[in-house]
Amino acid sequence: MRIEVPVTSLLRLLRKRIGDFPYPHQIAGLLDNPLRRALENPSASVDAIGLTGGESVVEIGPGPGFFSVEIARRLTTGRLVLFDIQPEMLDKARRKLDGAGYRNVDFHAGSADAELPFADAQFDAAFLAEVIGEVPDKDACLRSLARIVKPGGVLVFHESFPDPDRLNLTELRALAEPHGFELAIARGSRWKDVVVFRKPVAAQEKRRL
Ligand SMILES: C[S@@+](CC[C@H](N)C(=O)[O-])C[C@H]1O[C@@H](n2cnc3c(N)ncnc32)[C@H](O)[C@@H]1O
């Protein structure tokens, strides 16, 4: 924590001066360390997605893959897609996942506020940890997420200290609900929030099921 807090202050200061920019890949090591693992318990956070093994999941902004390994581990027959604006971050995540023996993962570079390069209703779940605060056009990002998540699927945000762009529950609801997502679970503490939204199944589709 003592290492991360000055970095957080520096990032906040730089953002004020020069505007939004992604967390620098050069200091990705600070995102994947034993202290964070002990404080944040990534396994418990990923449990909130409610995976049963066969799902198709997209993780936006995985960075070096702190949560990705936990997601890939649960997808026994499903598939994980990692999408990050920095190819260097995807390289780090790929090394981590390869090292852990997970081959059920695809990698895409791009910006989450441009149209996401995936089919309508492709995913059962979308997971974003400490990312949405860095995305300049958050509304465009949510619009795209609403398109690629299946009816009945979930959108999960993980926001924690000491992220300088941490969004709270009210801010997340203000972003997600106008795009049709409904709040399903909100687990909060002063250290982290895990917020799950569900995309409702339209009445017409419900009748078909
Ligand atoms: C603070 S890091 C968090 C990484 C990881 N989720 C974690 O919690 O360890 C934010 C990540 O989001 C990515 N990112 C930032 N803006 C993005 C955007 N517009 N589109 C896609 N990825 C973005 C960054 O490159 C970085 O990997």
TrEMBL record:
Record flagged with keyword Transferase: yes
Domain Methyltransferase span(s) in chain numbering: 53-159
SUPFAM superfamilies reported for this sequence: S-adenosyl-L-methionine-dependent methyltransferases
GO process annotations (BP): methylation
One MF term in the entry's GO annotations: methyltransferase activity
InterPro entries (UniProt xref): Methyltranfer_dom, SAM-dependent_MTases_sf
Keyword Transferase on entry: yes
Classification via Gene3D superfamilies: Vaccinia Virus protein VP39 (3.40.50.150)
Keyword list, A-Z: Methyltransferase, Transferase
PANTHER family: 2-METHOXY-6-POLYPRENYL-1,4-BENZOQUINOL METHYLASE, MITOCHONDRIAL, METHYLTRANSFERASE
Name this protein carries in UniProt: Methyltransferase domain-containing protein
Organism of this sequence: Mycolicibacterium hodleri
